[in-house]
Each structure stands twice: as structure tokens, then as C-alpha cells.
Amino acid sequence: MLLKDALFKAMDKCGLTAKELSERSGVTQAQISRFRKGEDLAFLTFQRLVAGLPREAYHQFTTTLVVEQMDSQELGNLIMSAVTQLQQKPVESKPVIESKPTESSDKSLELEHSAEPIPSAA
Fold first, then answer.
1. What is the pLDDT at residue 113?
2. How far apart are CA 106 and CA 46, in angstroms?
3. Average pLDDT per consecutive 10 residues, the chain (122 residues; last block may be shorter)
4. What is the CATH number of domain 3-76?
5. What 3 state SS string does 40-101 have?
6. Phi, psi dihedrals of residue 89, rounded to the nearest 5°
């Protein structure tokens, strides 16, 4: 897949318009339109377009480049590797929060309620 195709696929999937990308990247809408229609674009200008992608579109762009370059065997191996790594990672348990007050918190509550009033400055 060409870089150009991956860029426009990411834009389309994320609903990003040429106007929005133009505002984010500083590349004119006319340049983006001409590029989409097949005109060449300087690599530095292309870099500005990629840098202007929102996080979601950038993720889509890079994923498209990586995944679509793989054949089904390579993709299967990548998925199996990820599954294996997830299975080997220990699951962290979260501590259980007790709903009952502890003995020390009961005492502090008692002290708060039994404390003598503060004398007024009058």
C-alpha cells in the first residue's frame, strides 16, 4: 500500500476532512485535494500531513501500513505472538476495599464526637 493511500484511508475511516487536516497541518486544502487526485507532493509536506493527524487517525494510518503489508501467515504469527505474551503476563489483582469501618477508624470517629467544644473568643 502506498503512503498516500494509507493517509486517505485513515482520514476516511476517522471522518477527518481535508479542511480539518489543512488546519491541523498547515498544508492547504488545495494541496491535499491535488495530492488525493494523484499529483505528487514533497515528502516534507507529506510529513506535515501525517504530523497533523489526530491520534485516532494516526493510529489508523500506521496500523494500515503495517497490517496491510503482511500476508495472512505473517498476520497470523503476529496475532499468536500477542496472545502468547498476554497469556504469560501475570494478572494483577486489585485490592478489595472493605465496606466496614475498622477498629481504628471507629475510635477516631468517637474522638471527634466526644471532643469538647472550642471556647469562643467573646
1. 44
2. 65
3. 88 95 96 94 93 94 82 78 77 57 48 46 48
4. 1.10.260
5. CCCHHHHHHHHHCCCHHHHHHHHHHHHHCCCCHHHHHHHHHHHHHHHHHCCCCCCCCCCCCC
6. -75, 125
Decide if 28 contacts 55 (C-beta within 8 A).
no
CA 85 and chain centroid, separation: 21
pLDDT at 93: 58
For residue 103 the three cell numbers come to 477498629
Look-up: residue for cell 487526485? 37
* Entry pTM: 0.58
| Entry field: residues in the chain | 122
Integer Cα distance of 55 and 88 in angstroms: 29
Q: What's the grid cell of residue 81?
A: 505472538
Listed by start position, the domains of the chain span 3-76
Distance of CA 112 to the CA centre of its chain: 46
